Amino acid sequence: MMSASLDFRAVDLPESTQALRQEVRDFIAQVQPQIPSLPDSNFDAASSKWFSQQLGAKGWIGMTWPTDYGGGGRSFLDRFVVTEELIAAGLPVSFHWIADRQSGAVLLSYGSEQQKREILPQIIKGEVCFCIGMSEPNSGSDLAAARCSAKRSGQGWLINGTKLWTTGAHQADYMIALVRTETAGDNRHAGFSQFLIDLKTPGVEIRSIQNLAGNHTFNEVVFTDFYCPGESILGKEGNGWEQTMSELAFERSGPERILSAYRVLVELLREVKGDVDDRQAEVIGKISAHIIAMRRMSISVALMLEEGKNPALEASVVKDLGNSFEKTMPELLRLIAPENTSERFQQTLKSAILHAPSFTLRGGTREILRGVIARGLGLR
Ligand SMILES: Cc1cc2nc3c(=O)[nH]c(=O)nc-3n(C[C@H](O)[C@H](O)[C@H](O)COP(=O)(O)OP(=O)(O)OC[C@H]3O[C@@H](n4cnc5c(N)ncnc54)[C@H](O)[C@@H]3O)c2cc1C
């Protein structure tokens, strides 16, 4: 049996990237006092179009995209430090996050020239929001079971079906959806296409779903004979599965897969004010060591993207380890928290505990990722 190996390498960030980190920190110090929400490192905790526009003005959305389309033409390592600093500071990034992380990359690879010219500059300015239309009722882990379908109708397509757990659909301008354009045959991955759906078109029904914390971040999106113009097909008809798999590599490896509960650590350190007992020191030390190791792995994936390699396998490893770690972090910190903590600490901890169950589900569950990793290593 052939076995592949993992391409993790120690990466020293270039000086220019380190300088960028300082620039981002200065920007955060200046802008954070204007943001009313409590800092939260969970990337889909809070959304602010205003904040995304501020980032856009700094050139920190679409940073790696070609300058031809208004992108920054910068490295994936630069993008890494910007995203890491924003998540660590707990800023409201969700309005532009999905578009910047993956939808823009899909458009760059598979979009028509017109789609690129029209939409990428709007993403870069923080003006438009995207959502991901993959999961459906009875089709999450087993994505190939998706049944949402598109049938030709005149010059366009009629879409019927339901997408589920769609983060941000209620505020999104566009969805990139995986849709069946042919009925399923022996090859379950064949016959899918991706569509760029304008969600502001009347006729699409977006129903809110409350998460465990009582917040509305995701939705059920229902299409009933929903008409999409012919040009809304993204890339090649029938190539949807392959396109979606390449999109997932962008979705799975970033700092948001490690640091979702990071603010609990920051707030705990604020509470103890440097005065820790042995037990607290041990837990804080272990958590810090994990963060240091995993962010190096995540930076290594950023380098692979920079080198034009496909990091799908390494990204799955980072997400599995990162999500498992960030899910346990709030509980570990709760157990060492001093008595009589501040309201601010309690709110931060509460939010992390209530959202933690979702960390290992969103973007593909741990169990499924482990199968992907085993297959990638030739073990399955
Ligand atoms: C906060 C959040 C945001 C999300 N946002 C989006 C979004 O924007 N767009 C989108 O398309 N989707 C989104 N999702 C959906 C997410 O991708 C799915 O929840 C996930 O893929 C799992 O699918 P499922 O919920 O149908 O669970 P199921 O597939 O039913 O899985 C249930 C359990 O069974 C396990 N399991 C299933 N199959 C196997 C197997 N073969 N071997 C071992 N174990 C297995 C799973 O690991 C899981 O623990 C979001 C989910 C969450 C929690």
Helix-residue proportion: 40-55%
Please tally the helical runs, counting DSSP H or I stretches of 4 or more residues.
11
- SS content category: alpha+beta
Into which percentage range does the β-strand content fall? 5-15%
Instruction: Give the helices and strands as they follow along the chain.
Output: HHHHHEEEEEEEEHHHHHH
CATH fold call of the largest domain: Butyryl-CoA Dehydrogenase, subunit A, domain 3
CATH architecture of the largest domain: Up-down Bundle
Q: Number of folding domains?
A: 3
Mean pLDDT level: 96
Small ligands present: flavin-adenine dinucleotide
End-to-end separation: 9 Å
Largest sheet geometry: 4 strands, mixed
The CATH first-level class of the largest domain comes to Mainly Alpha
- What is the overall shape? globular
Radius of gyration: 21 Å
Total strands = 8
The main sheet orders its strands as 1-4-5-8
* Spans where pLDDT lies below 50 across 5 or more residues: none
